[in-house]
Amino acid sequence: MTPTITPNTHRATFAIGDERTARRVVDLLNESLDDDQAAVAAFERPDGRWDVSAHFAEAPVDAAIRELVALAAGDEVAQRITFDTVEAKDWVAASLEDLFPVPAGRFIVHGRHDRARIPANKLGIEIEAALAFGTGHHGTTRGCLLLLGEVLRSRQPQRVLDLGTGTGVLAIAAAKALRRRVLASDIDPVSVRVARDNARLNGVGNLVETICATGFSAPHFAIRAPFDLVLANILANPLRQMATPMAAHLAPSVSVILSGLLPHQAQGVIAAYRARGLVLRRHLKIDGWSSLLMQRAA
User: Fold this and answer.
1) What sign does the CA torsion over 215, 221, 222, 225 have?
2) Dihedral angle at the C-alpha atoms of 152, 157, 159, 162, nearest 10 degrees?
3) Whose CA is closest to 284, among 173, 168, 145?
4) H-type helices in 87-235, by residue range?
5) pLDDT digits over 80-121, tens only?
6) 122 three-state secondary structure
7) How far is Cα 10 from Cα 138, in angstroms, rounded to an integer?
8) 277: left (phi over 0), alpha (psi -120 to 50) or beta
9) What is the pLDDT of residues 181-230, one digit of tens each?
10) CATH code at 5-90
């Protein structure tokens, strides 16, 4: 396996005593920082306090971050912020030993070392080459798999798109469950290669077509449209921006599963797709992340 080395990222972390203040800080940071500049999240600790973390692609200006936090939580909290760097590392090799199978309805995501332990009544998805965000251990991936299972209980989509496929988990799940072709796209050529390799590993290499594309620019989308099932586990801003071009590629009976959203971002995404004729059917919240099932309004 080729090592997957992630670049250095910069991190700011601090603790807050109550949920309301934590969410106020997260909201302010998300409003003040671009989605492609930073990722901010808050999680409750067993003692009732909240841990807040912000990850940056580029080193932030410490004073500016402290000033934003002080506005929402006060100077004392702002002065407790710790800034550090998460060094480049082969996270695949480092994390596989601790990777445990993750059930998500009829699906179960696992590593090679657990291949023999998958129950016969589950659809196993074997993933060995990604960070937790793409292995099923992340709340967004699990939310999408649960919603996919819900859709498949009532219908059998014919044309499936996995937009922003990452490691290919969702595309593989759909291909295994439906035994139909799935188009899987990502803007990152490394992700496209990983998704292709994982599809072959799971025996659906002939069903999952992987392409490198930004948005809906590639001709493959028009050729394979209209889609009656779309899975898009990305981020809030790209999802809002792609609502209009996505709508042009959808079948009348479409189900659209969206994730990569913090709970406070969900309403904005729901509104963007409602304006294109889709209504919310389910809203799952798992591990501090939201996953949405949208369908055409009757």
Assistant:
1) negative
2) -20
3) 145
4) 91-95, 139-154, 169-178, 189-201, 219-224
5) 999 988 765 544 455 445 556 778 889 988 887 788 888 888
6) coil
7) 20
8) left
9) 999 999 888 889 989 999 999 999 999 999 999 889 899 999 999 999 99
10) 3.30.70.2880
d(CA 130, CA 115): 17
Amino acid code (one letter) for 270: I
Q: 3-class DSSP state for residue 123?
A: strand
CA distance 109 to 173: 9
Give 151-187 pLDDT, tens digit per residue. Answer: 999 999 999 999 999 889 999 999 999 999 999 999 8
Assigned token pair, 248? 């042009």
Q: What's the CA gap between 213 and 221, in Å, rounded?
A: 10
Strand 102-104's sheet: what is its strand order?
102-104, 107-110, 123-126
Domain residue ranges in the chain: 5-90, 99-296
Both tokens of 113, joined, read 């070392």
Contact 112, 126 (CB under 8 A): yes
């209009």: which residue's tokens? 244
Rounded to the nearest 5°, which phi and psi values hold at 172? -65, -45
Does CATH place domain 99-296 in 3.40.50.150? Answer: yes
Closest CA to 11 of 55, 58, 66, 41: 55
Q: What is the CA radius of gyration of the chain?
A: 20
Q: What's the count of helices (H) and strands (E) in the chain, helices before strands?
A: 11, 16
Question: In the block, which residue shows the tokens 């807040």?
Answer: 52
CB neighbour list of residue 145: distance below 8 Å, 6 or more residues apart: 104, 105, 107, 109, 136, 169, 170, 173
For residue 284, which phi and psi values (nearest 5 degrees)? -100, 140
